[in-house]
């Protein structure tokens, strides 16, 4: 499977339309590259730290993000994990990401469970999701998660208990905690013997510098590909049979003991 992580620069001085233009340009550059799965970061259109704009930027589930990205999924014949957007549902607002299949059809959604309350208004403005998300794709079962969720191993373990074989993570993780980012991405992959694809932002939004370093981690916790600190598309090939091979060779998941 060939994956492409669109590490987008999200800066305060820009309007979402400018980011959309760059995203669509990067998608068009993937034409002919036989990519199977594309990931975008967390709240890339509005900008994670642009809290004052959340309400105005909110959209229904089948809103702008899905409508604009679905034709790209069809054109590129690739799954697209849309990154997250502010979803409006009745009077509630969520940090929601979606997975489109290569026909542009919505196959999975995830509402961020662990909202970030430190130096952030996310927890005041949004409602937390209450369900993990495991989506059956043509490449296996994908578990979806968002940024701060990385600090909560029980969420990833639950997804593995529900058959996840890889994790798709969108993030707006700050550079100030870049070491945590790498450590947590590798730990969640290794302890769950699963591929982890994590797409982050870069650039400075609301005074917070995005850490970049989007990465693809193997089920053995090794970084297979990693972006730098600037805007780029990280493309890498993944051998998904490694998950089953490693789980058979070193069957730690089988030795789980129920602690509750
Ligand atoms: O946990 C962290 O250090 C960063 C989390 C974050 O920025 C987020 O959830 O958007």
TrEMBL record:
GO molecular function: hydrolase activity
Pfam families in the cross-refs: CN_hydrolase (PF00795)
Stretches assigned to the CN hydrolase domain: 1-240
Keyword tags: Hydrolase
Domain of life (superkingdom): Bacteria
Matching PROSITE patterns: CN_HYDROLASE
Keyword Hydrolase found: yes
InterPro entries tied to this protein: C-N_Hydrolase
Stated family: Belongs to the carbon-nitrogen hydrolase superfamily. NIT1/NIT2 family.
Protein name: Carbon-nitrogen family hydrolase
Organism: Butyricicoccus intestinisimiae
């Amino acid at each position: 499977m060939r994956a492409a992580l669109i590490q987008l620069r999200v800066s305060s001085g820009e309007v979402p339309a400018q980011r959309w233009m760059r995203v669509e340009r990067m998608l068009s550059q993937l034409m002919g590259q036989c990519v199977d799965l594309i990931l975008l970061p967390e709240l890339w259109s509005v900008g994670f730290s642009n809290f004052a704009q959340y309400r105005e930027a909110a959209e229904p589930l089948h809103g702008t993000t899905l409508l604009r990205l679905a034709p790209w999924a069809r054109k590129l014949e690739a799954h697209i994990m849309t990154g997250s957007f502010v979803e409006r549902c009745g009077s509630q607002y969520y940090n929601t990401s979606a997975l489109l299949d290569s026909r542009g059809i919505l196959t999975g959604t995830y509402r961020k469970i662990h909202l970030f309350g430190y130096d952030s208004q996310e927890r005041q403005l949004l409602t937390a999701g209450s369900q993990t998300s495991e989506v059956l794709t043509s490449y296996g079962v994908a578990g979806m998660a968002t940024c701060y969720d990385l600090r909560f191993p029980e969420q990833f373990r639950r997804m593995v208990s529900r058959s996840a074989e890889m994790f798709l993570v969108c993030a707006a993780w700050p550079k100030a905690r870049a070491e945590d980012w790498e450590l947590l991405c590798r730990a969640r992959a290794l302890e769950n013997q699963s591929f982890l694809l994590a797409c982050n932002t870069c650039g400075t939004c609301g005074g917070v510098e995005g850490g970049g370093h989007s990465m693809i981690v193997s089920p053995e916790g090794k970084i297979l590909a990693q972006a730098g600190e600037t805007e780029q598309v990280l493309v890498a090939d993944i051998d998904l049979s490694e998950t089953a091979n490693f789980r058979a060779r070193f069957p730690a998941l089988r030795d789980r003991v129920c602690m509750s």
